[in-house]
Amino acid sequence: MSIRMALAIAAGLGAAVALSSGAGAEMAAAKKPPKPKVVTVTGCPEKGFPDTCTIIKAPKDTRYNISGANPPAPIGKKVRLTGKETDPHTVCGGLTLVDIKWTAVKGKCAAPPAKK
Questions:
Q1: What are the angstrom distances between the C-alpha of 5 and each of 2, 8, 11, 14, 79?
Q2: What is the extent of the structural domain holding 56?
Q3: 57 with 79, same domain?
Q4: What are the pLDDT tens digits along the chain (116 aa)?
C-alpha cells in the first residue's frame, strides 16, 4: 500500500469519526418539553371507573381525571378547579390533571342517573 493511499484512508476515517460524533451530540441534546397546558373547569366531580377514579366533565365532552386532587374533590358538589394536563393514558380515562387546586362554588349538581 502506498503512503498516499494510507493517508487518504486515514483522512476518510477521521472525517467519518468527526461527522458521527457531531451527529451524536445533536441527538443527545435534550429538547425542552412543552409547557403543560393549564386548564380551569367548573363542574361536578363524579366517580369514574374503577371506583377509585374521580372524573369531571368539561365543555365539548372533554373528561378530566382529577383523582390526584389533594384534598380529593367532593363527589356531587359543584367546584371550580385548575390543573395542568399530563399524559392522557391512565386506567381512569380522560386527560389527567396534576397540581390540582379546587374551591367549592354555589350551584347544584344534577342527580346521578338511576341504576337499572
A1: 5, 5, 10, 14, 78
A2: 38-104
A3: yes
A4: 567 665 556 555 555 555 555 555 555 667 777 788 899 999 999 999 898 999 999 988 899 999 999 999 999 999 999 999 987 678 898 899 999 999 999 999 987 666 65
